[in-house]
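Task: sequence design from structure.
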């Protein structure tokens, strides 16, 4: 900490950063990097998808947390399942999931995604998506607001920081 006039200024130096890296376990640095670059795939499925898109727009500005919308699964770390998944759509969803590089995470957003919501017991809706994709965070609501989705990302960040392995979760 230094002073410029009456203002306190926090300064750092390359030797400080070098010392910090030497004293911090590699696992912690890797987790920190991963939690601060959660790029999510934009594939809105139902009305919850509109809230997901709104979360990535200017008003909520999730870019400041490193939570950035991406249009390609090959550049995405997080899949937000944002609405009902029909049996007809499931193969396409699985293909997108498989195209995402590891490590990757999935957030279930809204009642439709979690249990079918108003489409519960419909002939065409998949009820147990977690049988197909491992889900990290569930966000109930119809629809959950952008603040709820941001809270979901925060819970995911806590989960990533608690990791004790640096490997990938899934086989590529
Ligand atoms: S949970 Fe509600 S808002 Fe979300 S996709 Fe289903 S009906 Fe639409």
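Answer:
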């Amino acid at each position: 900490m230094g002073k410029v006039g009456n203002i306190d200024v926090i300064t750092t130096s390359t030797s400080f950063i070098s010392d910090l890296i030497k004293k911090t376990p590699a696992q912690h640095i890797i987790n920190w990097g991963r939690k601060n670059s959660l790029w999510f795939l934009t594939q809105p499925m139902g009305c919850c998808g509109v809230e997901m898109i709104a979360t990535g727009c200017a008003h909520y500005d999730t870019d400041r947390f490193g939570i950035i919308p991406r249009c390609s699964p090959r550049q995405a770390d997080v899949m937000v399942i944002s609405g009902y998944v029909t049996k007809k759509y499931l193969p396409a969803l699985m293909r997108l999931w498989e195209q995402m590089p590891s490590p990757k995470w999935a957030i279930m957003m809204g009642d439709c995604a979690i249990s079918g919501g108003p489409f519960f017991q419909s002939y065409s809706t998949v009820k147990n998506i977690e049988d197909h994709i491992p889900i990290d965070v569930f966000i109930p609501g119809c629809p959950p607001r952008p603040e709820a989705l941001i809270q979901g990302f925060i819970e995911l960040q806590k989960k990533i920081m608690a990791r004790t392995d640096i490997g990938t979760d899934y086989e590529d």
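Strands lie at 2-4, 7-9, 39-41, 68-70, 78-81, 105-109, 137-139.
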